[in-house]
Design brief:
Layout: H1 3-19, E1 29-36, H2 39-42, H3 47-60, H4 62-65, E2 71-80, E3 85-92, E4 104-110, E5 113-119
Parallel strand pairs: 1-2
Antiparallel strand pairs: 2-3, 3-4, 4-5
């Protein structure tokens, strides 16, 4: 019966190694604080879909994935323009990182077209 604890320990170790989840490479924790310029922007019919679409693009953007920052927090201001197009302007919440490529971007969305996101090095 001396072998039973070893077999149990081995079985537990094997199960634990199988249940480990693979790490996601280059995962960045992203926080976005959305601030409408006025009620028209806040009430825009396309706002919710645009926020989801832009968030997805930001999280997958090469500039963000290559960032040395582990967490990036953005202050995003948005306005409603002609033809129902929303314009978004974002800056990192922490001004110490203002010069980094990943800390400044603009996006447009709505008005019947897909969203476009451009970081400040792409202008």
């Amino acid at each position: 019966m001396a072998c039973a604890p070893v077999v149990i320990a081995f079985s537990v170790a094997l199960l634990l190694s199988c249940t480990k989840q693979p790490e996601v490479e280059n995962f960045k924790q992203i926080q976005l604080q959305w601030n409408a310029a006025d009620d028209a922007a806040e009430q825009s019919e396309s706002k919710d879909n645009c926020v989801i679409e832009i968030t997805s693009k930001i999280m997958r953007h090469p500039v963000v994935l290559k960032s040395k920052l582990v967490e990036i927090s953005y202050e995003v201001k948005y306005t409603l323009g002609e033809n129902g197009v929303l314009a978004f302007d974002a800056r990192c919440s922490d001004n110490r990182f203002a010069d980094l490529d990943e800390c400044s971007w603009q996006a447009t969305c709505g008005g019947g077209s897909g969203s476009v996101v451009k970081f400040h090095n792409e202008r």
